[in-house]
């Protein structure tokens, strides 16, 4: 057991055991905190909506999850960006009007598409749209990040179409990507 | 200094373990945070950092033959144990980790060998590693 390879394997096993122990002990807490944070975010995106109930979204390729409430729905939509999927949480009223938008995940290029995460002026263009967000028309894209801008608009349109009962795929793509 | 054939894997295990723990903690305290994913440039960054650290401890100008398979184990097992990836993705991560370690180890040691042939600034090797990482940006959206 004095061979160095056993030391290397032992080091990997020790690191794995420590991470597994932390994960096992804290995964429940992590899940509770995640749920609580999601509830807070959904209340912000769709104010005064009361309790949310998750609904089945099978058959909608751009919709990852949907949480129905009294006055509308919060939809987790996904669209292909420049460097992987962009996940957007969209608050939509029953009439299909977007009430709020928040980016949940993106891996776009730092300094270009990644700016979408914090560019409030860009994201503020989406509330009030109803499946008609079109980059270059109603939406001014981020400079140097047209693909990212279009992907976000596509996800927001898909979310709106999902709630208003429209065709999620074609309504979201009729103007571009 | 005595050469240890697995020093590279020790360095990699520590770096990947710390990154996994940092990501796990970040998810715990701020679940809405947009965190970096495991993609090819990030894997290359970890491999190059481990390689550079190892080289600073004990200069080495030949690739480590066992580095690739053991790096595959490190990249496959640690993120899975931290609950950061699914088993399916961990398998792909392991294959990518092994391949990236093989390539970066070869390129880094080749650069170290070249630089050792003449007088060079101590910053030359870290700069070479940085350029290798920047070159890997081209693979951002590939496979993972």
Question: What's a concise summary of this model?
Answer:
The complex is a heterodimer of chains A (177) and B (144). With 177 residues, chain A is α+β, with helices and mostly antiparallel strands.
Describe this structure in words.
- The complex is a heterodimer of chains A (177) and B (144).
- Chain A is an alpha+beta fold.
- Chain A has four helices and five strands.
- Chain A has helices at residues 4-45, 120-123, 146-164, 168-173; strands at residues 53-55, 63-69, 72-81, 84-93, 98-105.
- Mean pLDDT of chain A is 88; it is low at 171-177.
- Chain B contains five helices and no strands.
- Chain B has a domain at 40-139.
- Chain B has 144 residues and is mainly α.
- In chain B, α1 (7-29) crosses α2.
- Chain A binds chain B through residues 4-5, 7-9, 11-12, 15-20, 22-23, 26-27, 29-30, 33-34, 37-38, 41, 82-84, 103-107, 109, 117, and chain B through 4-6, 9-10, 13-14, 16-17, 20-21, 24, 27-29, 31-32, 34, 36-37, 39, 66, 70, 73-74, 77-78, 81-83, 140-141.
Order of helical and strand elements of chain B: HHHHH
Unreliable stretches covering 5 or more consecutive residues of chain B: none
Number of strands of chain A: 5
Quaternary: heterodimer
- Percent of residues in beta strands of chain B: under 5%
Mean pLDDT of chain B, to the nearest integer, reads 90
Please give the radius of gyration of chain B in angstroms.
15 Å
The greatest inter-chain interface is formed by: A-B, 34 and 32 residues
- The assigned structural class of chain A equals alpha+beta
Order of helices and strands of chain A: HEEEEEHHH
Query: Sheet bearing the most strands of chain B, described?
Result: none
Write the layout of secondary structure elements.
The complex is a heterodimer of chains A (177) and B (144).
Chain A: H1 4-45, E1 53-55, E2 63-69, E3 72-81, E4 84-93, E5 98-105, H2 120-123, H3 146-164, H4 168-173
Antiparallel strand pairs in A: 1-2, 2-3, 3-4, 4-5
Chain B: H1 7-29, H2 40-57, H3 67-81, H4 87-115, H5 124-136
Helix pairs in contact in B: 1-2, 1-3, 2-4, 2-5, 3-4, 4-5
